[in-house]
Write a structure and sequence with these properties.
Chain B: InterPro entries: Peptide/Ni-bd (IPR030678), SBP_5 (IPR039424), SBP_5_dom (IPR000914). Chain B: It comes from Deinococcus carri. Chain B: This is Glutathione-binding protein GsiB. Chain B: Keywords: Signal. The structure holds two protein chains of two kinds. Chain A is 75% helix and 0% strand. Chain A is built from 13 helices and no strands. In chain A, helix 5 runs antiparallel to helix 10, helix 6 packs across helix 8 and helix 10 runs antiparallel to helix 13. Chain B folds into three domains: 109 residues, Periplasmic binding protein-like II (D-Maltodextrin-Binding Protein, domain 2), CATH 3.40.190.10; 112 residues, Dipeptide-binding Protein, domain 1 (Alpha-Beta Complex); 200 residues, Roll (Dipeptide-binding Protein, domain 3). Chain B contains 15 helices and 20 strands. In chain B, strand 2 and strand 3 form a beta hairpin. In chain B, helix 8 packs antiparallel against helix 10 and helix 14 runs antiparallel to helix 15. Classes of the chains: A mainly alpha, B alpha+beta.
């Protein structure tokens, strides 16, 4: 018996609703994990010069002397009102900090995913079509190097070459797109390439293997036998199917980048999400850590949600039930 | 033909983009993002780099650590060291136009002593009250004589804030600081930059640079790369490994001058194994300070014999750096086995140092395990005395008291060892109550003799200030507190 097909909209709503309990568990985990971290944020803020009296005062004003359950409920209550609290470091609201940093990282992530697609689509396609040839071997070798090359190394290498040796591109910094588009793109180029090379290499490997698998399927052989032009068979029939696993990996890569391209942001001194997180962890800025982890969880959920919807576009056989 | 043309185009394009910032902007690379720009709340060392340009202090330090006039043109110490009367400079205005007078000074000092969360309370503990005598005279009365007061006022406690601005900004003053210094606060973007602009009506004359930008680069290699590429013109600090490379490069210069702090190892004297004095002495005797300075720090640190670096007022050549003595170490151990855990923070230099210590201890048969925790946890465990031995130093203060009192008196806020010695307590209290520096130094030396023998801490090395700058930067003064002052700095 055939099940009745669920319309896309209902599926989307159901997916969104089912995220609520998951996100609640995430808040509990986030809160618990931050509390499990060793060290005392008040001690860290006062540093070397803390006197016991100043410590007690600060702990009280930070609410650290209240029972854990009370702290959690208080925090969750404000989060539901989209109030993530204020940074312990300088009293700025966590919401505005995130709103400030997230667009930078989103821009960097989108830019680097574009670069990675620019690398992966032609390289993966070429490699799968010429399987076993020297082109394929070359691409495989390059992709493996791209995957193995650590970000920090590639980043420093690019800085050395383009900033120090050639002096074409500044070594670090960030200007917003609205303020100065040309400078914005120039400054983001090296970090985007650093990130894009890695995910481009990963995606190349996935595209190659999934496309070569598809090319050996019966329906592809049938299409060839029917006398369809090879180009059409590859691009229309095979590539479309091969894109499904590719899309999953693409989503994962993008989700990871949104969670914070921590090392790359450090190397190029980009004031993004990843850097803020590292800084917050080191200074035990609890409200900032909690707010950021929560926002990352939502971002990863949203990306995977969009990827699910994207499947339908790539492959009409996928039905939502 | 095409390639040179392309690269020419690119260079012109990037020069236009990079060089669009005018030449009068000076960018300084720091090792951390300064958290709080409010002198009452600041607890990080790096805050002072920025705050020193925004705020003037009552007094300042010169290259020889002498206290020199700044907002106070002169001062008198009377009543057996209990009363300090400061004459203020006339006609000084804060960057927001508020006049700087005795009321503003009183307001600032009172705020430092009462504001919730103020980190200055400890330093100003001996202040009984602050009185306005006339608009340009202010008097501080102490409850007991406190020799280090002037030195304390040459740092954050003496930075005078604009009362108008504080009242207006409230808790947000740390993000909108106003002082009377050579540069005024323009903007900040966390983890990206803090921008200051020249205070054209500065009483000491307008600064030569128009804009001063601070940028944080936590990674030393990244900071170094940015200096080489011209993105920053000054960096502090330079990693020791890069010092010789940079000083051989004609486009740059290196300022390498003594600092005020010390580094070494604390022993927890409240529990075994280091409640045994002989064990502490044994560990101390294995350390080869020269070898450490050479192999890990490329000779950019000085072996230490106590808490007072050479060039500071309490330094005494009579106290000699101890040479490693394995026979002495073995003799102190008395054939008993000694194993302990050395607590430290992660990081290349700390890891290498800990491993070198471990190897040095092993030569005397002492077995040390290294445990690494991040800095906040280290401080927390130190407070709870939950450690055997730990590596922790001090950034240092210009007055000797700031390098010894809280570390070795019973219950002192930096006494990580839990060390207590009545004689030392009495001597250190006596030293801070004395007003003549030579008398104080003599007292410190007696106290130090006892502390070094008791060995709750092993002093290992003094760090130097390592600053890198583009060759065109002039006027940087090597003041041992490590804070760069930019009022007279120029960029050619």
């Amino acid at each position: 018996m055939l099940e009745k097909e669920t319309p896309l909209l209902v599926f989307a709503l159901r997916r969104l609703l089912s995220a609520i309990p998951t996100l609640l568990i995430v808040t509990l985990l986030v809160f618990g994990m931050v509390k499990l971290l060793p060290g005392d944020p008040a001690r860290l803020m006062l540093g070397e010069e803390a006197t016991p009296q100043a410590l007690t005062e600060l702990r009280h004003s930070m609410g650290l002397d209240r029972p854990l359950a009370q702290q959690y409920v208080g925090w969750l209550g404000s989060v539901l009102h989209l109030d993530f609290g204020a940074s312990l470091k300088d009293n700025t609201s966590v919401g505005s900090l995130i709103a400030d940093k997230l667009p930078v990282t989103i821009e960097l992530a989108v830019f680097s995913m574009l670069i990675s697609l620019l690398i992966a689509l032609p390289a993966g396609l070429l490699s799968a079509l010429r399987r076993g040839s020297w082109v394929d071997q070359g691409v495989t070798l390059l992709a493996l190097s791209g995957i193995s090359l650590p970000n920090f190394f590639l980043g420093i290498l690019l800085i050395y070459l383009f900033s120090i040796r050639l002096a074409w591109i500044p070594a670090s910094g960030y200007t917003s797109l609205l303020e100065n588009p040309a400078r914005n793109l120039l400054l983001l180029l090296l970090p985007a390439v650093t990130l894009g090379v890695h995910s481009g290499a990963v995606l190349t490997r996935y595209l190659r293997s999934s496309l070569s698998e598809t090319l050996m399927q019966d329906y592809v052989r049938t299409a060839h036998a029917k006398g369809l032009p090879a180009r059409r068979v590859t691009l229309k029939h095979a590539l479309r199917n091969a894109l499904i696993p590719f899309l999953t990996v693409f989503g994962l890569q993008l989700g990871g980048l949104l969670g914070g391209a921590v090392i790359t942001e450090q190397i190029f001194s980009i004031p993004g999400f990843g850097r803020l997180l590292v800084d917050a962890v080191f200074t035990r800025d609890l409200p900032v850590i909690q707010g950021m982890v929560l926002v990352s969880a939502v971002a990863v959920f949203l990306v995977s949600f969009l990827v699910d919807l994207g499947y339908a576009a790539a492959d009409p056989r996928i039905r939502y039930s | 033909m095409r390639k040179p043309f392309l690269s020419l185009c690119l260079s012109v394009l990037s020069a236009a983009l990079i060089g669009s910032a005018a030449a009068e902007t000076l960018t300084v690379g720091l090792d951390a993002d300064p958290p709080r720009l409010d002198p009452a709340l600041s607890s990080a060392l790096v805050d002072r780099q920025v705050m020193n340009q925004i705020y003037d202090k009552l007094v300042d330090l010169d290259q020889n650590l002498k206290i020199v006039p700044m907002l106070a043109t002169s001062w008198k110490i009377t009543n057996g060291g209990l009363t300090y009367t400061f004459k203020l400079r006339g006609g000084v205005k804060f960057q927001d136009g508020t006049p700087l007078n005795a009321d503003a000074v009183k307001y600032t000092l009172d705020r430092n002593m009462t504001l919730e969360g103020s980190v200055r309370k400890g330093e100003l503990k001996s202040v009984k009250d602050v009185k306005v005598i006339d608009p340009l005279t202010v008097q501080i009365t102490l409850s007991q004589p406190y020799g280090p007061l002037l030195a304390v006022l040459s740092d954050r406690a003496g930075m005078i804030v604009s009362p108008t601005a504080v009242k207006k900004a409230g808790a947000d003053f740390q993000n909108a600081p106003v002082g009377s210094g050579p540069f005024s606060f323009t903007s900040r973007k966390r983890q990206d930059n803090i921008t200051l602009s020249a205070n054209k009506s500065y009483w000491g004359g307008a600064p030569k640079i128009d804009k001063l930008v601070y940028r944080p680069f936590p990674d030393g290699d990244v900071r170094y790369a940015n200096l080489l590429s011209g993105a920053i013109q000054v960096m502090t600090p330079i990693d020791p490994k890069d010092v010789s490379k940079l000083s051989q490069n004609a486009k740059f210069k290196v300022l390498n001058y003594p600092g005020l702090g010390f580094q070494g190892i604390w022993f927890n004297v409240t529990r075994p194994p280091f409640n045994n004095k002989a064990f502490r002495q044994a560990v101390g005797a294995t350390i080869d300070r020269q070898a450490l300075a050479k192999s890990i720090f490329y000779d950019t640190v000085e072996p230490a014999a106590g808490p007072f670096p050479q060039g500071t007022p309490a330094y005494s050549s009579a106290i000699k750096v101890s040479r490693p003595d394995l026979n002495l170490a073995k003799q102190k151990l008395g054939g008993k086995p000694l194993s302990f855990t050395l607590l430290t923070t992660p990081g290349t230099v700390t890891t290498q140092t800990a491993q070198l210590y471990q190897a040095m201890f092993a030569q005397a048969g002492i077995n040390a395990k290294i445990e690494q925790v991040e800095f906040g946890t280290l401080l927390d465990r130190a407070d709870k005395r939950d450690f055997d031995a730990l590596m922790l130093g001090w950034s240092g203060r210009p007055d000797p008291d700031g390098n010894i009192f809280d570390f070795f008196t019973t219950g002192g806020s930096n006494n990580q060892a839990g060390y207590s010695n009545k004689t030392v307590d009495a001597l250190l209290a006596k030293a801070r109550a004395q007003t003549s520096m030579s008398a104080r130094v003599a007292t410190y030396n007696v106290a130090l003799g006892k502390i070094l023998d008791d060995a709750p801490y092993t002093f290992v090395y003094f760090q130097r200030n390592l600053v890198g700058a583009a060759a065109g930067v002039t006027g940087l003064k090597p003041i041992p507190d490590g804070i760069l002052r930019f009022s007279d700095v120029d960029l050619k």
